[in-house]
Amino acid sequence: MTNRRNFLTGAGAITTAVAAASVSRVAMAALPEPVLQTKPDTMDPLVPNTGRPYNPVVTLNGWTLPWRMNNGVKEFHLVAEPVVREMAPGFKAHLWGYNGQSPGPTIEVVEGDRVRIFVTNKLPEHTSVHWHGQRLPNGMDGVSGLNQPAIPSGKTFVYEFVARRPGTFMYHPHADEMTQMAMGMMGFWITHPKAKHPLIDEVNRDFVFLLNAYDIDPGAYTPKIMTMLDFNLWSWNSRVFPGIDPLVVRKNDKVRIRIGNLTMTNHPIHLHGHEFLVTGTDGGPTPKSTRWYEVTTDVAVGQMRQIEFLADEEGDWAFHCHKSHHTMNAMGHEVPTMIGVDHRKVARDITNVIPDYMVMGERGMADMAEMEMPLPDNTAPMMTGTGPFGSVEMGGMFSVVKVRKDQKAGDYKDPGWYKHRPGEVAYEWTGALPNPARFAAEGGKSMPVQNMPAKEVEVQVRKPMGNMKH
Amino acid sequence: MKSFFKLGAVAMATFVLAGCASVNFDQTLADTSSSVGTFTGGKLELSRTKQQTQARNKLTADLLAQPLGMNEAVQLSLANSPSLQALLAQSWAEMAQAEQSGRLANPVFTFERMRFVDELEIGRLLSFGLLDLLTLPRRQAIAQGQVAQAKIQLSASVVEQVTQVRQAWVRAVATQQTLQYAQQVNAAAQAGAELARRMQQAGNFNKLQRAKEQNFYAEAAAQLAAAQHASTAAREELVRQLGLTDAQVEQLKLPERLPDLPKTPIQASVLTASAKEQRLDVQLAKHQLDVAGKSQGLNLLTSLLDVELGIRRDTVFDNGAGTSAVRKGYELDVRLPIFDWGTSQRAAMNAQSLAAANRYESTVRGASSQLRESYSAYRTAYDVARHYRDEIVPLRKTMGEETMLRYNGMLIGVFELLADTREQISSVSAAINAYQQFWLADAALAASVTGKPTSAGAMSVSSAATAGAEGGH
What we know:
heterodimer; A: mainly beta; Immunoglobulin-like; eight-stranded mixed beta sheet; five-stranded mixed beta sheet; 5 helices; globular; B: alpha+beta; Outer membrane efflux proteins (OEP); four-stranded antiparallel beta sheet
């Protein structure tokens, strides 16, 4: 366990880190020891005990990077390195990330903080970090070649600027970007307002996550970095459902969720049971006059959305991307539609040649979620996750907002499935089923049929051919 | 008179001497059987009696009662094949002819009756080719050499026949096995085509998609037909090698698959010098050289001299005087070497000896090379077949399993699953072909070590390595 987030927060910790270092003390004295994370779980919020106070966020299946104060400057140490990220239980990806995980840790600062970030490159190639959305000196913007030389392998660069604008931001490389983002190089950045802000409300719970997508062949571990659009894993913070933690809140909590999109397509993010307001983008808080209630908001490529709602309805509420294939895991794009195809005898013939063959898809794809069949190694099932009433038949960008009245403030532990009150669950109708009344005249009178064939035309799907009795 | 009978006794003794060397063919067959016994694994017999024929028929029936293994096929051909019987009979004839040249020419008895006025002369002359007699031991040795050659020739023919039987058996079993897999491919393609038809019927497939699947089936059907004929042709070739009657053909059952590879290949030590010396072709060339050497001196002698010795006893009756007188004596005919001193004949002899010597040398040298080539063909075929068994087929199996897992995860559809199955089966067919090449090379190597190299021994390795039902010939 190398979660030493609290280890470094005191001055003593730095001394210990220096003493423990085997390299030059003088050289190391300038650097905060990098803190690594080995678990993909959602960590409790990191309550600040140095620097300006703020209300910390919770990173879904992630964590916040600890810092040290050095003469009034907040110092962070990011280490860009290859990592193994568990994307779902039993499914691990070989990614590139920061400080042991991908995405990297969330950086939380307060408006007006002077921030110094050490970036050590342990990747096999050069990198850089672009602080997406920040106001900063041009030479700190992190576009390699344009603003700075790229950080070579094995070297440490320092970025330093003042977090001028409160809001929701992210960081990602701007060197060999397509590769490095496809490999999972990204992280969240929150700049909290230093005082009460007219457009930024205080909330009880503040969740953050990044949308990301990978193309990992089932059974493989490393994403295909040449993929441009046709990704097969759609994830939140590099986790796929059912590997994504629920967003646990107390009834009547004011909840903020900040979502950043670093995939190559837009994602209509949809919340059940509540309406929300989009209160911010990466441009900052939205003017109140522009806000309206929605249940789905589209997060375009490279954008941030900050949504807020009052969690006043108890229950387990689905929260997901509304692109239905984004709520599935790896699947075949060339799999033919089998719906309605009669498999009798053919299935037996195929079984004679392929003994393990089993008919699937004849009635739709739900077969997939129902049948527990062996898959290639290191593959997350396409549709899975079991709820209290059976298979949820979901994967990818799907989670649940759990609203409970007895959840304690600041408690993010999963309370289990919602216990419905009697009569509040859809039930089977067991009464009589009268024939539905159908209207008599098909086709309106506004566009009457002109040349109605005398005989009813029978659509022939298959043209008659020679001898078909094979 | 006394000396006449003395000479007669010598002649009789010569007859006996010449007669005792008459061909014992059964013994010859027993010798041949033992010399190539490890090769044939069965007994050679030329059946001449009803009993022998019955015994052969019984053995044939016993062998046909069960699936016929490779060695059983050889035994069956030894017991049943009329062409092998023909071969044996022909060989017998050749040996008998060779024997003939080692015999003494019969003595010539000349009887004269001449009348002159009152005189009646009755002349009796018993003449021998004196040289014939003198060279008899040598000629007998030559004849024996020729018989020995004929024996070797017989062994070689038997080895060739047996090798052909083995190879025909290998081809028959392999093509039968390939046919079985072609049937599986066909079944998979048929299922795919039928499913595609229903897919189109349900509106899920377009014409092109359906046609593609139908096309797989159409091609598989063509391949199946070809495999069916290949199997029939190979089986009929075996039937001919075994010399089966139509009724016996009905009974013929082959095992389902080729035998497993031997755990270890035959080591290169089969190529030792002693193995080379034992080769039939080397032995044959050696015998030919010996015969050439022996006949050289003999022919030199006969080319110069043709000596006939005659014993004469004439009786002259004088009717006028009423007396008779006997005249005794001997005659010696010598052909005078005036016109022909035998130089051309000697030259021919010398040339033939030289040719025999060089043929021998060439055979010995060629034998080494042939052994090495056969061994290389054998070893390569073994390694390729083992590679198929240990690498390609297991890899294909793994691919099949992984493909199945992908089908389970709906990462691929049933048509990809079927396509993979077809490929898997064609790999298995290629593996069968590799096994076939191995067993063909195995038979060829055995023939080569015995000294009757077969052309099929020089199999083409590249064609063995390529996929396909037919290859290597």
